[in-house]
Amino acid sequence: MLSTDDASPASGLVSETLAMEYASLRHPHHLPLGIYVLPDEASLLIWQGVWFLHQGFYANSVLKFKLVFPPNYPDAPPALQFITQVFHPLVREDGLINMEGGFSPWRPREHHVHHVLHWLKAAFKKEGLAAVSETQAWNKEAYR
């Protein structure tokens, strides 16, 4: 599991970028319905999140997760890791989710946090689950 110790201090530019990304979540349609995030008080490189699912296979679930941003963000993508145990083809046993299907390659000037959160929501819908290939699946049992 990724820990808060894994995040080194953010540089001024990275801190400013993350602050702007967080502020942009106030724009209409940037933050998907049912998902809430908040920067960790220990480090701006870690955001805590909770997702209330209301429909589909995971309806009535409450999933906690964290986004961990690398020190060179936005040049490299954040990692998304569930704290709540999740049985999903893209989610490893330690909670880390494979985002390669949505962001391969990661495009620093095009991809933003709100894209990651919308992709996450889509990955749990019926169509998103059907689109997962065996090579993308980190949890082969859930894939079957």
From TrEMBL:
PROSITE patterns registered for this protein in UniProt: UBC_2
InterPro entries, A to Z: UBC (IPR000608), UBQ-conjugating_enzyme/RWD (IPR016135)
The protein's name: UBC-like protein
Domain UBC core: 13-144
Residue spans crossing the bilayer: none
One Pfam short name: UQ_con
Species, as recorded: Sistotremastrum suecicum HHB10207 ss-3
